[in-house]
Design goal:
The protein is mainly alpha-helical. 55% of the residues lie in helices and 6% in strands. Helix 21 packs antiparallel against helix 22. The radius of gyration is 26 Å and the shape is globular. It starts with 17 loop residues before the first helix and ends with a helix. The model has no long low-confidence stretch (mean pLDDT 96). The chain binds zinc ion (ZN).
C-alpha cells in the first residue's frame, strides 16, 4: 500500500520512500481530475470545489516538505518529475470552462443568493478568481492572455538567469594582505577559502551577499569598496559583469509592458490595480498614498541621520562609503556586541518560555508528544489543546538545526488544513537553521534567532488556531499584505523586559539579561532606522511608479534611478542600475511586483496591533483571547481590513511603527 495515497494525521514519514512519489501523484492526479468532473456535474459545485484536491494537496505538501528537509538525489528526482504535472493541473482549474459554467449556474440559484458569511465570501472569491484568469474574455482575448502568460514566463525566467550569470561573472582577487585591513577574521578566512576553491592564491571577493556585505561594511580601502559597489549596481547591464550578453534593459521594459496589457485586457486601470484587487490595499492608489505618508514622516529624520554621519566621517560620502562609516559610527555610539546576548538564549528555555507566554495569552496548552514518526531524530512534535474546553486543535513539528539534506532559512508550512470546530485537527510545522549545540553546551541563540522562532510560531498559530469551515480560506491563506501580521507581531515580545525575563535566562546561572546590556540592545535597534525605512520606501516607490505610471518610452533604468536618487543617503553614480537586478519585481510573472509596499504595510499592522498589548498589558489574557478570536481564528473568512478593525476598533495607524523605530 502506497503511504502517500491517504490523508493520515500521523504522517508515516518513516515509511515514505522516493519510489512512492510518482505512482501516488499520478493516481491522485487522476483522482482529482475525476473529482473535477463530479464537481462540474454537482448540484453544489462550490462545496465540492473546496475538497476537490484535498488528497493531492496533502501528498504534495508531504513530498515537498520531505524534499526540503530530508532530500536525497532520488527524492529530488521524483519531486522534479511530478512537480510540472501537478502545477499544470492546479493552473488548469480556473481556466476550466465546464467548471466556470457550473459555478455560474450555481451562483444564480436561490441557495447561492442566500449564502452568508464565509460561504458567501468563498463564492465571490471563486468567481473573481475565474475572472482574473480570463473566464469572461472572448476567444480572441483568451488566446492573447495565454500568449501574454507564456511571454511573461519566458521574459522573467531570462531576467533571473541574467542576474545570476552577471553576479557570478564577477570576482576580485586581492593578493596583498595589507589591502584587507578592516575586514573581520571570518570574512578574510571566507575570502581565502573562496580563492582556494578556485585554485587561486590570495583572497577572492564576489557579489554574493556575505562577501559583498562584509566588504561594504568593514574594508578600509575605499577603492576596493568602490569597485565592488559599481559591479554590484551595474549587474545585468552592458557595462556590468559579464557584459552585454546579460543585459536586462529590454526585458524589463517588455515585462512591464506585458503586465500592463494583461491588466487592461482583464478590465483594470493598471497592473497595480489588478494585483492589489484582492489584497488589503485594494488599489495602487491606496498603496501609493500609504508610501507617500510614511515618506513624509521619515524624511526629516533621514536628513538628520545623514548629516550626523557626514559630521562623524568629517567628509562628504560617496555611495560606497555609507555602510562603512555607518558601521564605525554604530560601534562608537553603542559599543554593543550581539554575541554577549547568546548565553541568555538557550533554545530549550526560549521555546518553553514562548509556549508558556502564548499559551496563557491565547488560552492554549502546548505539550510535547512522544513516539511520533518524523524525518530526523532531532525533530520534536507537539500537540496544541484549547485550555478551557480541552479540545485537541492540532499538532506540529519543530525542526530547528541545519543539516546537509535540508534547505536554508526559516519557514512555517501547513501539512493538513483541518477545522477543529468539526473535529478535524490541523497539522503544521516550523523549521529553521539555528545555531546548533557545540562543546557540550546547549544551543545558544542570537537575539535575531529568537525573533525568528517567535515569528515562525506566529505563522504556525495562524494555521493551528484557525476555525474556518472553508479549507481554501483557512489559516495563512490570506492576502499577501496581511499574512505577516500574525508572525511579525510575535517579535514584539522579544523586546519587552517583562516577557524577556520569562525566557531569557543565563544557561549556567539562570540570571536575567543585565539592565545595561538590555538598554544597549534597545538603543542599537533604532540606529539609522530612517535610512533603513527610506531604502524600503524607495523600492516601493519605484515598483508602483513602474506598474502604475511608466509610459513605455525613454530609458526605464534612468527613470527608476531618478526615483531612487531621492531615497539615497549619497549621490547615485550615473551608471547605477539597481533595477536591472531587482529580482523581487522581475524574477517571476508576479512575485513582489506592485506589492513591494507590503513589507512596510505589514510592519505598520504589527506595530499598531501590538499597541493594544502595550497599553493593556503584554500578558493581558483578555486582549490575547480577543486577538485569537478576531485575527488568528479567522483566516481569510472576512476582508482583512474588517478583521483588523474588529480587533483594533479602527483602521491601522503608522504612528506605532514610527515610534518603535525611534522616528518620533
Ligand atoms: Zn513570515
Amino acid at each position: 500500500m502506497n503511504p502517500l495515497l491517504e490523508v493520515q494525521f500521523r504522517v508515516p514519514f518513516d515509511k515514505i520512500h522516493p519510489e512512492h512519489v510518482e505512482p501516488a501523484i499520478d493516481e491522485l492526479l487522476a483522482d482529482a481530475a475525476r473529482r473535477m468532473e463530479e464537481t462540474i456535474a454537482s448540484e453544489r459545485p462550490l462545496h465540492a470545489l473546496d475538497t476537490m484536491t484535498e488528497r493531492l494537496d496533502y501528498a504534495m505538501n508531504v513530498v515537498r516538505h520531505m524534499e526540503s528537509v530530508a532530500t536525497t538525489p532520488a527524492l529530488r528526482a521524483a519531486y522534479n518529475a511530478v512537480q510540472p504535472k501537478v502545477s499544470a493541473f492546479y493552473s488548469s482549474i480556473p481556466l476550466n470552462e465546464g467548471l466556470w459554467k457550473a459555478i455560474q449556474r450555481y451562483a444564480s440559484t436561490e441557495e447561492a443568493r442566500a449564502l452568508a458569511g464565509t460561504m458567501k465570501r468563498f463564492l465571490t472569491k471563486t468567481i473573481d478568481s475565474f475572472k482574473r484568469h480570463g473566464a469572461e474574455l472572448d476567444p480572441v482575448g483568451k488566446a492573447r492572455l495565454q500568449e501574454i502568460n507564456v511571454a511573461l514566463a519566458e521574459a522573467t525566467t531570462k531576467f533571473s538567469e541574467n542576474v545570476l550569470d552577471s553576479t557570478n561573472a564577477f570576482e576580485l582577487v586581492i593578493t596583498e594582505e595589507e589591502r584587507l585591513k578592516g575586514l573581520p577574521p571570518a570574512a578574510i578566512a571566507a575570502a581565502r577559502a573562496s580563492a582556494e576553491a578556485k585554485g587561486q592564491t590570495g583572497w577572492r571577493f564576489t557579489l554574493q551577499a556575505p562577501s559583498y556585505i562584509a566588504v561594504m561594511t568593514y574594508l578600509d580601502d575605499a577603492s576596493i569598496r568602490e569597485a565592488l559597489y559599481r559591479a554590484f549596481n551595474t549587474r545585468a547591464t552592458p557595462c556590468g559583469p559579464g557584459g552585454a550578453v546579460h543585459d536586462n534593459h529590454q526585458l524589463i521594459a517588455r515585462i512591464v509592458e506585458l503586465r500592463k496589457e494583461e491588466a487592461k485586457l482583464l478590465g483594470f486601470r493598471d497592473f497595480s490595480d489588478f494585483v492589489l484587487e484582492d489584497r488589503m490595499a485594494h488599489t495602487g492608489e491606496r498603496a501609493q498614498v500609504f508610501l507617500d505618508d510614511l515618506r513624509q514622516k521619515t524624511e526629516a529624520r533621514f536628513r538628520e541621520e545623514n548629516h550626523n554621519l557626514e559630521a562623524f566621517a568629517a567628509r562628504e560620502l560617496a555611495a560606497w562609503d555609507v555602510g562603512y562609516f555607518a558601521e564605525k559610527q554604530r560601534a562608537a555610539l553603542y559599543d554593543f556586541d550581539e554575541e554577549a546576548l547568546r548565553p541568555y538564549f538557550p533554545l530549550e528555555r526560549v521555546s518553553a518560555g514562548m509556549f508558556d507566554i502564548f499559551g496563557r495569552l491565547f488560552g492554549i496548552r502546548v505539550s510535547e508528544e512522544q513516539n511520533v514518526p518524523s524525518w530526523d531524530p532531532h525533530v520534536k512534535s507537539y500537540a496544541i489543546h484549547d485550555s478551557s474546553s480541552g479540545a485537541f486543535l492540532g499538532s506540529f513539528y519543530a525542526d530547528w538545526f541545519p543539516r546537509e539534506n535540508k534547505r536554508g532559512g526559516a519557514w512555517m508550512d501547513a501539512l493538513i488544513t483541518g477545522d477543529p470546530g468539526a473535529n478535524r485537527p490541523h497539522l503544521g510545522l516550523i523549521c529553521g537553521n539555528l545555531t546548533p549545540p557545540v562543546d557540550g553546551k546547549p544551543a545558544l541563540l542570537t537575539h535575531r534567532e529568537v525573533e525568528t522562532i517567535f515569528h515562525e510560531f506566529g505563522h504556525l498559530l495562524h494555521h493551528l488556531l484557525s476555525r474556518v469551515e472553508v479549507r481554501s480560506l483557512a489559516g495563512t491563506s490570506v492576502a499577501w499584505d496581511f499574512v505577516e501580521l500574525p508572525s511579525q507581531i510575535m517579535e514584539n515580545w522579544c523586546w519587552e523586559r517583562e516577557s524577556l525575563d520569562l525566557f531569557a535566562q543565563h544557561w549556567e546561572t539562570g540570571a536575567p539579561i543585565p539592565d545595561d546590556l538590555f538598554q544597549k540592545m534597545k538603543r542599537a535597534k533604532t540606529f539609522r532606522a530612517a535610512n533603513a525605512q527610506m531604502r524600503q520606501l524607495g523600492f516601493g516607490f519605484v515598483d508602483l511608479a513602474l506598474h502604475r505610471k511608466w509610459g513605455g518610452s525613454g530609458d526605464v533604468i534612468e527613470y527608476s534611478r531618478e526615483i531612487l536618487r531621492q531615497f539615497s543617503p549619497a549621490p547615485l553614480p550615473s551608471d547605477h542600475a539597481m533595477l536591472a537586478a531587482f529580482t523581487h519585481l522581475f524574477a517571476g510573472p508576479v512575485g513582489y511586483a506592485a506589492g513591494y509596499y507590503s513589507y512596510k504595510w505589514a510592519e505598520v499592522l504589527d506595530a499598531d496591533a501590538f499597541t493594544r498589548f502595550r497599553k493593556e498589558g503584554v500578558f493581558n489574557e483578555q486582549v490575547g483571547h480577543e486577538y485569537r478570536d478576531k485575527i488568528l481564528a479567522r483566516g481569510d473568512s472576512e476582508d482583512p481590513a474588517e478583521l483588523y478593525r474588529s480587533f483594533m476598533g479602527r483602521d491601522p495607524d503608522p504612528r506605532a511603527l514610527l515610534e518603535r523605530a525611534g522616528l518620533v
